[in-house]
Amino acid sequence: MKRISLFLLLLLLSTTASARDSFKICWSIYVGWVPWAYGADQGIVDKWADKYGIDIEVVQINDYIESINQYSMGEFDACTMTNMDALTIPAAGGVDSTALIVGDFSNGNDGIVLKGKDSLADIKGQTVNLVELSVSHYLLARGLESVGLTERDVEVVNTSDADMVAVYATPGVTAVATWNPLLSEVAAMPDSHRVFDSSQIPGEVIDLLIINTETLAANPALGKALTGAWYEIMAHMSGGDERATAAKTFLAELSGTDLPGFESQLASTEMFYTPAEALALTNSEQVKETMQTVAEFSHKHGLLGEGAPDATFIGVETPAGVYGDSNNIKLRFDPTYMQMALDGEL
Amino acid sequence: MIEARNLWKKFGDKVVLERINLQVQEGEFVTLVGTSGCGKSTFLNMLLGTEPVSSGELLLHGKPVPGEPGPDRGIVFQQYSVFPHMTVLQNVMAARGFARRSLTGALFGSARREAREEALGLLEEVGLSHAQGLYPAELSGGMRQRLAIAQALLGRPGILLLDEPFGALDPGIRADMHDLVLRLWRQYRLTVFMVTHDLKEGFYLGTRLWVFDKTRHDPQAPNAYGATITYDLPVGKIDRDTLSDIDRDLARAVTETA
Amino acid sequence: MKRLINQTPAPMLRVLLGLLPFVLLVLLYMFASEARLTENPSDKLLPSFTQIGDAIERMAFEPSKRSGDYLFWEDTLSSLTRLGMGVLIASAIGLALGLFTGALPLVSASASPLLTVVSLIPPLAILPVLFIVFGLGELSKVALIAIGITPFIARDIQRRTQEIPSEQLVKAQTLGANTSQIICRVLLPQLMPRLVDAVRLSLGAGWLFLIAAEAIAATEGLGYRIFLVRRYMAMDVILPYVAWITLLAFVIDALLATLSRRLFPWHHHGGQ
Question: What's the topology of domain A110-200?
Answer without folding.
Answer: D-Maltodextrin-Binding Protein; domain 2 (3.40.190)
